[in-house]
């Protein structure tokens, strides 16, 4: 090393609480290499590794320092340092220590009273400093007689960063390369979708198998690095997958996470207090349409190019867009005593608006949920009077003035189809819907089940009504589809005549005894059957009980 022993160790003395300079013997030229190795072992925690990404944890207001000396052999050698803040803005700088001209004798420092502080200040200079939370890269030329010191400081809170030092600038980069124009273009905006496009990374063209694009969508702000995004999501109280780059590997999702895999794209939706955070990795495609967004909402979009082999990433310049407002739903007029069947497509038409003008002071609304999940919102002259999720048969009795205008808004709360029957009438004493029991479940008795018969029971009401039982033979793989497609408002008119078992009337003024049973005979052994019960009120409007699947005994 072409620098005196004192000047080589001056930075190390500054980095430790007690200067150890005078307690170590000056190395002879023949022992410089072993001495250098000993220094490495002693001060290994402060040396920044060359060619490796290092994660550094910073405590608030406590600076952290790392130094490095590049390989000898050339008078000037190129090097680069990339620092990635993973949370709050930080301050960081690069200082260089250069040896003085000439060479002092090993023992000169023992006899000469030269001011060390004056000598240090004349040979130490700051060549770079930065404050912020962007990913910054410094590229420079190193002198073999120079020692470099990096200082990092966080003044907001404890945080962590990643630092990558390399002196090999010819054999490729750890981080994927961004295009000359790293902006993300918004090429389409809808009510629930945003379409994005970006220019290909040169790394994709060179290493297609090990490179992929990952998109982050959130409602808060853009992120300047992938580790900053992951840190922000973790701070909201959830556990993330290792990284987006590794998200194609199986792992256990947290309760707040939803994973969607379709068309070779993996989407992860995190439910956080500030809205959803979506992560989508789409391979090497450089266009993507983000689906299932909320209308009239601003979203922030970040694209990261990820190296699957090294797990390193680079961030495109983030963008944002606001989805279009939901169009006003078509208003349909409700007429007195007329039942309207409303079907909502959870993907295309999630809203339906009805209007009713009162001709009496007291109005009764009846809703029979047929399928799915629907929320109803009733307003009188623009003011909300009722709002809730529907279940089964629901009545609302409202009192107002003549010619009051009622608006009924129906909203599907799931993506599958939902449907509901709606009735508005001033005459509650003449209901069109039948009186319903406490439960629409059908019960089967396992002990009464035989190879050729099944016994079922269901609840009735205090009102005499007609009940019809239907049966249908099904296979194991049909159970889920049959139960999912069941519509409690549908009648038996679509059923085949051969499926009808019986019809009967019954009621009981004592609800504790309003139970009826029937034994269905003539069945096949070891066979699955789907049983349905339909209830008909005075108006003839049917209500379907929850379907019941029962299997006859195989051996008797």
UniProtKB/TrEMBL annotation:
It holds the Pfam family NDNF. SMART domains: FN3 (SM00060). InterPro entries: FN3_dom, FN3_sf, Ig-like_fold, NDNF, NDNF_C, NDNF_Fn(III)_1, NDNF_N. GO terms for biological process: nervous system development. Residues 176-313, 434-542 form the Fibronectin type-III domain. GO terms for molecular function: heparin binding. Its main location: secreted. It is found in: Secreted. Keywords: Glycoprotein, Neurogenesis, Repeat, Secreted, Signal. SUPFAM superfamilies: Fibronectin type III (SSF49265). Residues 1-23 form the signal peptide. GO terms for cellular component: extracellular region. PANTHER family: NEURON-DERIVED NEUROTROPHIC FACTOR, PROTEIN NDNF. Secretory protein that plays a role in various cellular processes. Acts as a chemorepellent acting on gonadotropin-releasing hormone (GnRH) expressing neurons regulating their migration to the hypothalamus. Also promotes neuron migration, growth and survival as well as neurite outgrowth and is involved in the development of the olfactory system. May also act through the regulation of growth factors activity and downstream signaling. Also regulates extracellular matrix assembly and cell adhesiveness. This is Protein NDNF. The gene is Ndnf_0.
């Amino acid at each position: 090393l072409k620098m005196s022993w004192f000047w080589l160790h001056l930075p190390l003395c500054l980095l430790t609480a007690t200067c150890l300079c005078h307690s170590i013997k000056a190395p002879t030229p023949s022992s410089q290499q072993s001495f250098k190795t000993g220094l490495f072992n002693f001060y290994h925690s402060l040396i920044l590794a060359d060619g490796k990404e290092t994660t550094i944890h910073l405590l608030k207001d406590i600076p952290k320092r790392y130094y490095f000396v590049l390989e000898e052999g050339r008078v000037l050698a190129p090097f680069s340092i990339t620092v990635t803040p993973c949370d709050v803005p930080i301050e960081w700088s690069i200082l260089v220590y250069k040896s003085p001209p000439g060479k002092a004798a090993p023992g000169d420092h023992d006899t000469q009273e030269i001011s060390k502080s004056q000598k240090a200040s004349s040979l130490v200079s700051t060549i770079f400093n930065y404050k912020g939370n962007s990913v910054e890269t410094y590229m420079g030329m190193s002198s073999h007689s120079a020692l470099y010191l990096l200082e990092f400081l966080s003044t907001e809170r404890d945080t962590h960063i990643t630092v990558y030092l390399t002196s090999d600038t010819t054999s490729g980069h750890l981080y994927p390369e961004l295009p000359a124009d790293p902006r993300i273009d918004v090429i389409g905006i809808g009510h629930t979708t945003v379409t994005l496009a970006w220019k290909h990374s040169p790394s994709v063209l060179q290493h297609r198998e090990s490179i992929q694009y990952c998109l982050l969508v959130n409602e808060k702000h853009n992120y300047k690095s992938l580790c900053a995004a992951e840190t922000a999501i973790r701070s909201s109280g959830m556990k993330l997958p290792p990284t987006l780059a590794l998200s194609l590997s199986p792992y256990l999702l947290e309760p707040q996470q939803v994973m969607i895999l379709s068309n070779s794209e993996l989407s992860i939706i995190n439910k956080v207090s500030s809205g959803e955070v979506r992560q989508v990795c789409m391979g090497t495609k450089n266009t993507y349409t983000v689906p299932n967004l909320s209308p009239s909402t601003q979203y922030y979009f970040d694209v990261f190019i990820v190296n699957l082999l090294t797990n390193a990433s680079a961030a495109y310049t983030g963008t944002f867009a606001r989805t279009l407002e939901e169009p006003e739903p078509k208003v349909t007029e409700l007429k007195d005593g007329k039942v309207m069947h409303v079907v909502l497509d959870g993907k295309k038409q999630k809203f339906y608006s009805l209007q009713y003008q009162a001709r009496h002071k007291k109005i009764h609304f009846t809703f029979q949920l047929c399928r799915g999940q629907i929320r109803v919102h009733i307003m009188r002259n623009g003011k909300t009077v009722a709002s809730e999720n529907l279940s089964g048969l629901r009545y609302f009795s409202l009192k107002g003035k003549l010619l009051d205008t009622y608006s009924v808004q129906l909203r599907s709360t799931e993506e599958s189809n939902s449907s509901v029957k709606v009735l508005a009438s001033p005459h509650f004493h003449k209901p069109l819907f039948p009186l319903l029991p406490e439960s629409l479940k059908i019960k089967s008795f396992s002990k009464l089940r035989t190879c050729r018969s099944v016994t079922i029971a269901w609840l009735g009401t205090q009102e005499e009504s007609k009940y019809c039982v239907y049966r249908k033979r099904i296979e194991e793989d049909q159970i889920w589809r049959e139960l999912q497609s069941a519509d409690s408002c549908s009648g038996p008119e679509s059923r085949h005549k051969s499926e009808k078992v019986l019809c009967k009337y019954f009621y009981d003024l004592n609800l504790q005894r309003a139970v009826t049973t029937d034994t269905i005979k003539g069945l096949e052994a070891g066979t699955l059957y789907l049983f349905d019960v339909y209830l008909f009120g005075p108006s003839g409007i049917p209500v379907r009980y929850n379907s019941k699947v029962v299997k006859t005994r195989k051996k008797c």
